[in-house]
Amino acid sequence: MTVSLDTSLASGGGEGRQRLLRSFTRAGGFIGKMARNPLTAIGGGIIFLLVIVAIFAPWIAPYKPLVQDLNNALTAPNAQHWFGTDEFGRDIFSRLVLRLADYAVHRAAGVGYRGAARAAAWRLRRLLWRQGRYGADARHRYLYLLPKPGAGVGVCRRLRPGT
Any transmembrane segments, and where (predicted)? Predict the structure, then answer.
């Protein structure tokens, strides 16, 4: 049995490959436009560096961040402790690098959760707004239960409409 290249099965994989190629081309064009502006390129480079440091933080940090060494308390920066130590003898560089990684993970998770919550609330608001057959009062009856965009994640404090 032979399969022609003109069949729908053979062209199905080509469409996906073309779509992927187009998306990579668009992304490359976007990155190219951003790289032409020097301030954007510098800012993007700093963010890229921080992301790399956050990913490899456990291997970059030379000391454990919570281990106390009271004999080395408040030492100035030197070859062993690049940023010095605090009043408990903990290495400041290690604490900074590992805190950056912790912050990046929590921030990324929060942005993803907040974005999903806002998108769901926006879709539900739009759905309720489109139900115009129940009248204007019915459209606004349940909107106060939804968090407003920009209000953050959490329980909406409004208990009833008009307050």
Answer: 39-61
Residue identified by tokens 């190629």 is: 21
Q: For residue 89, is it left (φ>0), alpha (ψ between -120 and 50) or beta?
A: left
E strands in 23-163: none
Same domain, 124 and 72: yes
- Alpha-carbon separation of residue 85 from 3, 56, 62, 103, 161 (angstroms): 70, 22, 13, 21, 55
Burial call 87-105: b when 16+ CB within 10 Å, e when fewer: eebbbbbbbebbebbeebe
Asked if 37 and 54 sit in the same domain, the reply is yes
Q: pLDDT tens across 105-122, in order? A: 777 777 777 777 777 777
